[in-house]
Design a protein that fits this description.
heterodimer, A: 117 residues, mainly beta, seven-stranded mixed β-sheet, four-stranded antiparallel β-sheet, 0% helix, 55% strand, B: 114 residues, six-stranded mixed β-sheet, globular
């Protein structure tokens, strides 16, 4: 397995619940990402954090709220979700620069399978 | 905006044979990176191979190699001596630094048959 971990691995929540997804990377990267993977659709980039600062928010509904307290941890807070939000949520991390031997590829966690009932 | 197209939703190959997965992309940039990722059933997405656009030589990683045609904006993945463990979804991805917004194709589901 890679150096990116995600918890929980599976989550079932009602539309009125509040829950959080957690991601942690042990690779010394300085960029972290949230993706949504739905059946028969390309991966959708949701949020990007570079050096703990959010640099991308691809028109994600406000019921998804990211938090990046440091360059190793990333959270996705969920509230009042809809059934169409059921999907696999993937976290990834990467270097921001290829200097000092870094590379641009992203390393993914195992994902959280979210079901909204 | 850059787009990535994988025109083969599903493919199958016999064990030990060779298979090629197609990927095309659309960009006006000259410096960029291309990737192939593999996502086995219920397992983590992992990098298979990467190609820097400024390099003319096609990247290879053991049984995996690419055919990078920059002018045609094509980036196909060849898997030689296919193994059962190669069964997975394969995603082609494009990235233009310094913007680290990676664009993925819809994926190709590859099944290796014994």
């Amino acid at each position: 397995e890679t150096g990116v971990t995600q918890t929980p691995r599976h989550l079932v929540m009602g539309m009125t619940n509040k829950k959080s997804l957690k991601c942690e990377q042990h690779l010394g990267h300085n960029a972290m990402y949230w993706y949504k993977q739905s059946a028969k659709k390309p991966l959708e980039l949701m949020f990007v954090y570079n050096f703990k600062e959010q640099t991308e928010n691809n028109s994600v509904p406000s019921r998804f709220s990211p938090e990046c307290p440091n360059s190793s941890h990333l959270f996705l807070h969920l509230h009042t979700l809809q059934p169409e939000d059921s999907a696999l949520y993937l976290c990834a991390s990467s270097h921001l620069s290829v200097l000092r031997g870094g590379s641009y590829e992203q390393y993914f966690g195992p994902g959280t399978r979210l079901t909204v009932t | 905006a850059q787009t990535v197209t994988q025109s083969q939703p599903e493919m199958s190959v016999q064990e030990a044979e060779t298979v090629t997965l197609s990927c095309t992309y659309d960009t006006s940039e000259s410096n960029y990176y291309l990737f192939w990722y593999k996502q086995p059933p219920s397992r983590q997405m992992i990098l298979v191979i990467r190609q820097e656009a400024y390099k003319q030589q096609n990247a290879t990683e053991n049984r995996f190699s690419v055919n990078f045609q920059k002018a045609a904006k094509s980036f196909s993945l060849k898997i030689s001596d296919s193994q059962l463990g190669d069964t997975a979804m394969y995603f082609c991805a494009f990235m233009k630094p310094p913007n680290n917004d990676m664009r993925f194709g819809a994926g190709t589901r590859l099944t290796v048959k014994p």
